Structures are given as C-alpha cells and as structure tokens.
C-alpha cells in the first residue's frame, strides 16, 4: 500500500507556523526596527470576525497593515486577533491562519502567498451567502509560495 507525501499541505503548515511565531513575538515584544506587515485575508472565511461595515466594504478580501498603531495582538494555534484603527475608529479583528492569502514584510523583502484552489467555482459570487448549511465541504488547505514584492515597493 503506497501513500504519497503531501508536500503542499506540509508547506502550508510550515508557513502558517512561521507566521504564528512571528506574530507571537511581535505580540510579546513589539515590532523591531522598521519591520511591518501587509496581511491579506479572505473575508468570506467562516471564522473571520470583522465589523459588518468592514465586511460590506471588503466582501472578498482585505489587506491590513500592522505597523504604527495596533493593540491587543493575541496569537493562538488557529489565528490571531488585533485591534486596528480605521479612520480614528478602533476595530477588533479575528483572522484565522487558514484565511490568509498573503503575508508580506516589505522592510526585509519577505513575502508569502497562499494559493486559492476553491475560488474557481466562486468567481461570480457576490458574497451574500451566509454559508449557513452544514453540508458544505471543508476548505482544502492552500499551498504556500514566495510572493513577488515588486507591487509593494515604493518608487
């Protein structure tokens, strides 16, 4: 009985662990030097917790910046919570690691992108489905790859 090695899933777990470790260190000690993060996540993920007005404004994905002003950064095995300032309005967010699409630290030209496999069926979806059915299949893990940083460079 032969079984294969699921390198994509193993890579996903490793990159998720790396992000978890980095965020846990920042939660404990703050951001060192010029480090800061652009984190893009899927707002449709069932375990994402954001304000209704943010979900309306960002129905598919959202990019947050952890840099100058953030509070209450807490990290666990499933994801992280953080309070960010949106136009002088503090908003708490809960982001599971499985919802991440990109994690970039432009100060050191480091970035990861998590591939989306389930989106092919949802391209026309407007995000109105609340996902209330219990028969939905679980979301498969995404593969990780290094992301090009050119789009984050300031010129």
Give the CA-based shape: globular
How are the strands ordered across the major sheet? 2-1-6-7-8
- Measured as a percent range, the helix fraction is 10-25%
Average pLDDT for all residues: 79
Please give the largest β-sheet: 5 strands, antiparallel
Distance between the termini: 55 Å
Please, how many helices? Answer: 2
Structural class: alpha+beta
Amount of beta strand: 25-35%
Low-confidence stretches: 119-145
Order of helices and strands: HEHEEEEEEE
How much is the radius of gyration in Å?
16 Å
What is the number of beta strands? 8
Describe this structure in words.
The protein is α+β, with helices and mostly antiparallel strands. 19% of the residues lie in helices and 30% in strands. It has 2 helices and 8 strands; from the N terminus they run αβαβββββββ. It has helices spanning 7-29, 52-57; strands at residues 37-42, 61-66, 70-75, 79-85, 90-96, 100-105, 110-114, 144-146. A 5-stranded antiparallel sheet has the order 2-1-6-7-8. A hairpin with a 4-residue loop joins strand 4 and strand 5. The longest helix is centred in the N-terminal third of the chain and has 23 residues, at 7-29. The radius of gyration is 16 Å and the shape is globular. Residues 119-145 have low confidence and may be disordered.
Key structural traits:
five-stranded antiparallel beta sheet; 19% helix
Summary, kept brief:
19% of the residues lie in helices and 30% in strands.
